[in-house]
Amino acid sequence: YINLMLRQLPGWVNHATNVYGMTDAILAPPRTDGVGGGDAYHFLSGYPHLYVNGITDWLLIPIFEYWQCYGNSQVPIGQDVNINDVKTVLGLTDADVARINSDGYFDLEKDLLFPLLDKNMNFWLQFASERYYKDGNGVNHVNDGTTLSAAIAAGDTKAKYIFAPGYSPENAPSGGNVMAFNSTMDISAAKNSVYMAETVLKAVYPGDAEKATKLAQWEAFASKVPVYLYNSDGALQEWCDPSLKDNYSHRHTSHAYSAWPAHEAMGDPALAVGVQRALDMRYSYNASAAESHAHDHRALVEARLGNASGLATPLMWLTKNNYRFNSFMTSHNNSLGSAYCTDLNDSYPGIINESLVYSYDNRIKILPALLSDLNKGSITGLRARCNTLVNALVWDINAKTASITLTTDRDINPIMLGCGVPWKKASINGAEQEIKTDTLGAPYIDLTLSKGNTVTIDFELADTTLSSLKVNGKPLSNFSPVVYNYSMLIPSGMPSTPQVTATANSPSATVAITQASAMSGQATVTVTDGNGKSVYTVNFGYAGSSDEFSGSTLGSQWSWVREDPTKWSLTNNPGFMTITPQTGDLNTTTNTAKNILLQNAFGDWTMESKLVFSIMPHAQYQQGGIIAYQDDNNYLKVDWEYYSANTLRFNVISESGGTVTTPFYVTNPAVNSPYNVWFRMVKSANNYSIYYSLDGNTFALIGSTSVTLSNIRAGLIAYNRTGTSTDLNVMFDYFHLTNTSEQVNSSPTLAALPNYTVDEGKLFALSLSGSDSDTNDALTYSATN
Of the four, 317, 452, 467, 666, which is 20 to 30 A from 258 by CA? Predict the structure, then answer.
């Protein structure tokens, strides 16, 4: 790998010079062709990869991590590496070249790693311009005669550079241009570049006064790097400026750079949460992307973040969708339908290894993202990023044991060792170790390894799962120890709040239950064992109701959003809810759509309606459909609409935090007079499937997606967006809402017992009776003498 980079290096110098006019700097191109050419020949206006400024950092990380894993080493000169081609950029003297040619080796630290990191920092120092900055009030200054240094000198401690230009591969801000600024990937890469360069300089040149001047420059630069931003969904933004809105409908996750390939998010819980949320939002729109790298990349990030359930999703997709040729090379797209590439087979080892052992600097964590099905296993021969061999990792979840055997190559190597699976204690040769807590609240033990000595650490794992979860004495039918969220329907007339009981799997675990404070509320069950804790939630709510629209007044379950009573009627077409679409929209900040008819929709459900259009939609954006609605900026809808000239569509649209996505549509469906359309939406947790029918009997799937909505209301829509025509009536024949969540068990009611007077010693008959509204309980009795 190092030799491939060295063959590329002259092109990196050209790239920094030709794109930005820089000197003594390097910038990697968008391609790393194996023939050795590092010059950039590829350009496409919609994909300006020339301006992905963080690529160099990404390509240097493997060399830095090789150094972390093995320490300094002598790197043999590749047969196709010409030392004279790289002499200047690596800062080699004639004496260095003579030594390298004589020995046949580069010194990893002094000849390669530090010079590369130094030249990469030269790039960032020249890329950031004093003339482009954001002041502490959020005002962008673009070559307006002021400078960042002057602003800071005047007391503006929050002023930061604007990183421009930049391209976040391969996405664009919602409604914006692919060429933008303050790309989150570039910001993360710049911060990581500083970290790597400082780490190597301090290790290789301690006390070097000349090199110390570089440290001061780098630290000054780092203090002015743009700060991360988070959107209203809590997701890390892909561009760190309020004017650049996220576009979730894309397969790439370049802005997850701080978690993978860099490690910054592992020391910043807020950043890690933001990255995870960004992944979730991105994947909710692209769970079935054909390109393997979308799923490979997500899997690498999920493993790094320690999210086993999130890791399982892309791995399952990659496994089931036919990407691998018999040669173990892989296809760019699923079903072996695209370019021959290495995406999947190159990433799989890293994904699995990272899920079993995470390491960085002086930290090792075992089983950080253990897949739920891997209850027992072992792996040998991994290297940790603290110059340490993982001789063996062995685990058995059912037996509640895990052990790791380590051998370091450093003379003295202090290591903080933790475990991603909840654990109770750790022992070395039977001696229990003191459990400490780091600044992030994570438990660990201290190790001090010495060179060549092999140490085995045994962990006793905790069990924070439940063996049973009951509501009103009845076990939940869909309970699983590894499912933590449940929704249950309250039956009509239930006299008191449901009561939750639970039993832990482990005898040493404690269970704390907080009951729901109201009928429509939430109960929580907290299971604690050792340093592990799990929280189960049970949400309670009432079922929605169906409506045939057979009366002349609207039922009390319904409510309007922006009602216009002149444009809806139950009497103009008896047996139908008739809504006349008018100008109005639900689109980012334009939330003006009128007569959205909604009712509460708790838990899991199926929503269906028959729509009769008085005429075929024919004017701009005329539409009618059904919607799952949290608020104006968070919803999922399906409609039949006039999309553009000669084009009508069954359109599925979602909006999350004001970002609109169209994940699915059917173009020009064969809807004939009398223009009847049936729509159906099926919800299970955060997963939605949307269907249509042209006869009310056979339903076809439009698509399935994952959307996070809360406090959902479901109902009907008919509006025109920007269109002004009012010649269409959308008549809703019925609205059916069928709840599929489990119902809370109703306790039986016993009839009042009469008083009996019986002579002693005589037999008598006692009649008992009772009723049970949901017929789920057996009536029992006991008697005492």
Answer: 317
pLDDT band per the 50, 70, 90 thresholds, residue 337: confident
Same domain, 648 and 512: no
Q: What angle do CA 497, 501, 505 make, to 5 degrees?
A: 160
Residues 239 and 265 in one domain: yes
How far apart (Å, rounded) are the C-alpha atoms in residues 607 and 546?
9
Residues 544 and 537: beta-carbon distance below 8 Å: no
Q: Which of 53, 276, 86 is nearest to 164 (CA)?
A: 53
- Please report whether residue 322 resides in a domain: no
Domain identity same for 479 and 452: no
Distances (CA, A) of 560 to 107, 276, 715: 73, 35, 10
Is 683 contained in some domain? yes
- Among 278, 289, 239, 232, which residue's Cα sits nearest to residue 256? 278
* Alpha-carbon gap, residue 630 to 711, rounded angstroms: 6
Q: Which residue do the tokens 């685990």 mark?
A: 395
DSSP H or E segment with residue 152 = helix 148-153
The single-letter DSSP state of residue 752 is P
Dihedrals phi, psi of 726, to nearest 5 degrees: -130, 30
- Alpha carbon distance 309, 610 (integer Å): 38
Mind giving me the DSSP string for 307-325?
Answer: -HHHHHHHHHHHHHTT-B-
- Which residues are within 8 A (CB) of 608 and not within 5 positions of it... i.e. 6 or more apart? 626, 678, 679, 680, 681, 735, 736, 738
Confidence of residue 53 (pLDDT cuts 50, 70, 90): very high
Q: Is the distance from CB of 228 to CB of 236 less than 8 angstroms? A: yes
Residues 214-261: pLDDT tens digits? 999 999 999 999 999 999 889 999 999 999 998 887 888 999 999 999
CA distance 771 to 779: 9
Q: Is the peptide bond before 165 cis (omega within 30 degrees of 0)?
A: yes
Cβ proximity of 489 and 498 under 8 Å: no
Q: What b/e string do you get for 225-234 counting C-beta neighbours within 10 Å, with b at 16 or more? A: bbebbbbebe
Question: Could you tell me if 61 and 385 are in contact, meaning their C-beta atoms sit under 8 angstroms apart?
Answer: no
CA 517 distance to own-chain centroid: 32
Per the CB < 8 A criterion, the answer to whether 187 and 228 are in contact is: yes
Tally: H helices and E strands in the chain? 12, 44
Check whether residue 255 and residue 205 sit in a common domain.
yes
Q: What is the 3-state secondary structure (H, E, C) of 524-550?
A: EEEEEECCEEEEEEEEEEECCCCECCC
Q: Are residues 709 and 571 in the same domain?
A: yes
Instruction: Quote the domain boundaries for residue 88.
Output: 2-128+163-286
DSSP letter (8 states) at residue 28: -
Q: In this structure, what DSSP letter does residue 478 have?
A: T
Q: Which of 406, 430, 461 is a domain's end point? A: 461
Asked if 347 and 300 touch (Cβ cutoff 8 Å), the reply is yes
Supply 242's token pair.
Answer: 């309020």
**The total number of structural domains that make up the chain:** 4
Q: Among 589, 586, 584, 648, which Cα is nearest to 615's? A: 648
Q: Which residues are CB-neighbours of 666 under 8 A, at least 6 positions away?
A: 649, 650, 692, 702
| Residue 700 lies inside a defined structural domain of this protein | yes
Confidence band of 757 (pLDDT split at 50, 70, 90): confident
pLDDT value at position 773?
A: 63
Check the CA dihedral 517-523-529-534 and report its sign. Answer: negative
Is residue 63 within 8 Å of 109, Cβ to Cβ? no
> Which residue in 387, 394, 305, 289 sits closest to 343, CA to CA?
289
